[in-house]
Q: What sequence folds into this?
């Protein structure tokens, strides 16, 4: 067994906000004392495929911002082919943190973990606060409303 647990978290992180920071803080806590947090930042092409639109910020800037957060030990760009199984096998996390709004990702991770019989803890991280600006979509809407 390793001295410190590796926690894997992922997301788009377009327009980094307080909800993202809280999600990553809670993800790292899920690994216990001295956990190492590795964050997969979705590629522009992946976001375009899954959400039907490009992110506001390019992938290299989103990755750099996430890695600059004190709680994050390493941030890497996701794989173009969107193969979650490959990511899990390569990083070998002890804990996978799933955000409250990552329903599709959660189903995919649970299926892969079951099929490949991978021994990993999956932790669902709750939503934080009722703030009107607790998501990138809400921030984008607020900007549009304010600057019309």
A:
């Amino acid at each position: 067994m390793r001295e410190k647990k590796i926690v894997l978290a992922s997301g788009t992180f377009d327009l980094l906000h307080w909800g993202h920071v809280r999600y990553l803080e809670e993800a790292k806590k899920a690994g216990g004392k001295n956990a190492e947090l590795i964050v997969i930042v979705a590629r522009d092409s992946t976001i375009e495929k899954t959400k039907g639109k490009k992110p506001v910020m390019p992938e290299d800037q989103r990755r750099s911002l996430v890695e600059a957060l004190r709680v994050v030990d390493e941030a890497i760009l996701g794989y173009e082919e969107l193969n979650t199984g490959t990511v899990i096998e390569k990083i070998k996390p002890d804990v996978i943190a799933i955000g409250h709004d990552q329903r599709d990702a959660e189903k995919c991770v649970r299926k892969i973990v079951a099929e490949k019989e991978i021994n990993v803890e999956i932790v669902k991280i709750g939503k934080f606060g009722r703030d009107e600006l607790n998501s990138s979509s809400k921030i984008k809407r607020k900007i549009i409303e304010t600057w019309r």
Notes: Residues 103-115 form the longest helix (13 residues). The mean pLDDT is 87. Residues 6-146 form a domain with the Rossmann fold fold (CATH 3.40.50.620). Helices lie at 18-29, 44-51, 59-68, 84-91, 103-115, 136-146.
